[in-house]
Structures are given as structure tokens and as C-alpha cells.
Design goal:
The chain has 328 residues and is of the alpha/beta class. 43% of the residues lie in helices and 20% in strands. The chain has helices at residues 40-61, 81-98, 107-118, 156-166, 174-181, 202-214, 219-245, 260-272, 282-285, 289-301; strands at residues 2-7, 12-19, 22-30, 71-77, 102-106, 126-130, 135-141, 144-150, 194-195, 198-199, 249-253, 276-278. Bound molecules: adenosine monophosphate and magnesium ion. Magnesium ion is lined by residues 107, 111, 131, 254, 287.
Length: 328
Amino acid sequence: MICLGIESTAHTFGVGIVKDKIVLANVKDLFSTDTGGIIPSKAAEHHVEVCDSVLDSALREAHLQLKDVNLIAYSRAPGLGHTLKIGAFAARTLAQLHHKPLIGVNHCIAHLEIGRMLFPECKDPVLLYVSGANTQVIAYEGGKYRIFGETLDIGAGNLIDTFARELGIGFPGGPKIEAMASKSHSYIELPYVVKGMDVSFGGLLTHLTKMAKSGRYKKEDLCYSLQETIFAMLLEVSERAMAHCGKKELLLGGGVACNSRLQEMAEKMCQERGAKCYVPEKQFLVDNGAMIAWLGLLMHKAGNRTQIKDSIIKPYERTDDVKVNWRQ
Ligand code: AMP
Ligand code: MG
């Protein structure tokens, strides 16, 4: 069975095509800026502009035509209403024009399921999902993917991008902050806010912004200290969730997980507690259509369907709103 998945929860418009466990195509186009952050309506305009070409490239890469596809999946949640609507509209149109079944999926769960697909030995991981808007520690428990810990305010990527803007860097700021951080080893103490299994970054952002504005600190040192602090916070809560759930696998997901320092710290934490760390390759860490297609296939096989009349978006749906009937 071949599924075409459309991703549009935020800055990325992606189309992935998956046949059984094989990714035939995973094409994306990212909305980016030189100076400001994401304006939802502008990101939506971007998605409308690139929609056709991303779809065509994915089909070409997979050597397929739309008639060969058996199922259309789209990310229905969570995300920006403006951009989610574009993906849902595209999916609905394709499904209706080509008489294909449709399925709406949850983006956070897709990050976890693509990890389980890529690493068959990774059966029941704790997912540390760190993207622009989302920072969550997710694991399967009692029939649902539950959020064991999360940010109490902004996502880790948002923190990084907002601070990058402060330094005059455009969106996305993560890779540039990482490059600057690699030039320093001087740690400046920053607020470290962990509450149980939750984290908070708002105070840290205000503090860092003030420090940057004061002109008394080297940018490289601030970037280095930012990374060391937030990654330690993220791994502390991940480790606590692993201990709480008795799970021995950590899976990384989300754009921030592309950071090699975060990956290094995650590997080390897992090694120290006799656990295994799984890091998907970059094309599957960031937002992508292949993971949407894969989750669509899993859900469809388990009998889930989305009728056209129900193919709405759910910008605020949480992972534990979804009943998981595709796992034994
Ligand atoms: P996503 O929403 O999952 O596609 O992730 C986007 C976020 O990942 C943005 O906030 C980026 O700044 C961040 N990001 C991308 N690459 C890196 C990196 N190497 N280090 C830290 N953050 C990154
Ligand atoms: Mg994501």
C-alpha cells in the first residue's frame, strides 16, 4: 500500500511517499526569513506557492503518478491554523479528485512513529521532541501517547530563534547559534528551570536578551551557555521520564534535535543509564511528509478513516487526545 503524506503544521510544506516501510520520496520546502520570525499568514502563502512543485517533485522522485497512490494523509494537528489549512485543503482536493481515502494524523505522534519505523529494534521509546513550537517528552502508556513533560511556556526552538533574532540572525536560528556555540567553551551561568518533568524557557530568554543587550558578553559565550543549559534541562526531564516509565530507549525528534551537542549529551545520558539512544537522520528529525505518510498507513491499516466532511484541522489537539489502536 502506498501513502502520500502532506506536512504543513508550521514553516515546512512537505510531501512524503511511503510504501510499506520504504520511503520513496520525502520532499520539502521551508519558509525562511533573513531577519524576522514566522508570520503565519506569510508561511501559509509560501505553502500555497510551493504546493504544486513539492508534490510534483515527490511523485517524480518516487517514479509514481497520483493514480498509483492508495491513501492520502495530512497533518491535522497541532500547529498554526493558517498553515494547517493549506495542507488539509491540498489533501482533501487530491483525495476527492483521485477518489482516494483520506486520513488526518497528529504530527507529534508521527515524529515518534517514524523513529520506530526507522529503527525496528527501538520498540517502546521515550521521545524527546524538540522543535520550534513544541518541547515535549512523550511515551506510550495505557493505550495512548502521553506527554510526561513539556515546556510550560515557549518551545526550545522558539527560544533559540527569538534569541537569534536578538543577535540579528534570521529564521531558523538554530544552525547559526550552534556554529557560534562551537567557538566557545566559557560557560556563563543562566537560569535553569526544571519543575518535575516540565521545563520553562521564558525567564531564560529574558535573561539572555538582557545580557546580549548589555554588550558585556561575547555572543559565542552566550550561545554556548544557552545550549549547555537548555540541553541539560531537556535531558534531565527525559531521563526522569525514562526512569518513571521504566523505558530503556530514548528517541530524538524535532529540528532542535539536529544539534550535534544535544545528540552528544543524549548519547552520554543513555550510556550512563544503560539505555539506547536513537537519532533519526536529519530529513526525518525535521518536519517532513514521510512521517505523516507512515503514520497514515499505520492508522489506516488499523481501520481508522477520515471522511471528507470530518477532514478539519485541530490546531490544539494533544497527543493523548488520540486513541492509539495501531499498536499491539
Ligand atoms: P522543526 O519545527 O521540528 O522543523 O524545527 C525547527 C526548529 O529547529 C527551529 O526553531 C530551528 O531553529 C531549530 N533548529 C534547526 N537546526 C538546529 C540546530 N542545529 N540546533 C538547534 N536548533 C536547531
Ligand atoms: Mg515537528
